[in-house]
Design goal:
alpha/beta; 31% helix
């Protein structure tokens, strides 16, 4: 049972908050103070796992009896990490470069029980295969969805699916930024009841 224990999402991402709300658990959000830079020669999956742990650990310092969820994600083609485009021209160039490519979204996840010190962490990959894209359809897509805050310059949960040839992975929520299947497993191990009892 959840009891009086707090559940804290170490993120201010609207996407992650919306995903966690699916579980019908009471939680709060906190902003982790973590430098999100890649270490020299660090693999994408190693980076997101390290940052997910760092985010959860930073927030856990302020919550002595809580379950803290940290997550970090990057999109990569091989070892090349794709950033968030930030604007139309950059998004256009990113999608041109991704035409016909396989993009792997690596999502690091961490759960810390700050009372016991117990920690769970891992990485969930999810792949998106992009179709061969014409410049005109890239422009139409960008003007409709404006995915300038999204790594890879598309929103899989929105119109971005029109750009895909196929998707593959164990948990589609990982693609949006919080792998709920793995998280639910860990939350149950930590003592929460899922689905929760109705009020």
């Amino acid at each position: 049972m959840q009891g009086k224990r707090s559940l804290v999402l170490a993120s201010t991402s609207a996407y992650r908050r919306s995903l966690l709300e699916r579980l019908h658990l009471d939680f709060e959000t906190a902003h982790p103070r973590v430098e999100e830079t890649r270490l020299p020669d660090e693999a994408p999956e190693a980076m997101v796992e390290r940052l997910a742990v760092a985010k959860a650990a930073d927030v856990a310092r302020h919550y002595p009896d809580a379950l803290i969820i940290g997550s970090d994600q990057c999109a990569a083609v091989g070892d090349r990490i794709l950033g968030k485009p930030g604007g139309h021209a950059q998004a256009r160039e990113q999608l041109r470069a991704l035409s016909g490519q396989r993009v792997v979204f690596h999502t690091g996840l961490c759960l810390i029980d700050s009372a016991s010190g117990r920690q769970w962490h891992g990485v969930v990959p999810y792949s998106v295969h992009i179709r061969k894209l014409e410049t005109a359809e890239i422009e139409r897509y960008l003007r409709l969805e404006k995915p300038y805050d999204c790594s890879g310059s598309f929103k899989s949960e929105g119109l971005g699916v029109v750009l895909f040839r196929r998707m593959e992975g164990d948990d589609p929520t990982a693609l949006i930024g919080l792998p709920l299947i793995l998280l639910c497993s860990w939350l149950r191990e930590a003592g929460l009841m899922l689905p929760p009892e109705t009020p």
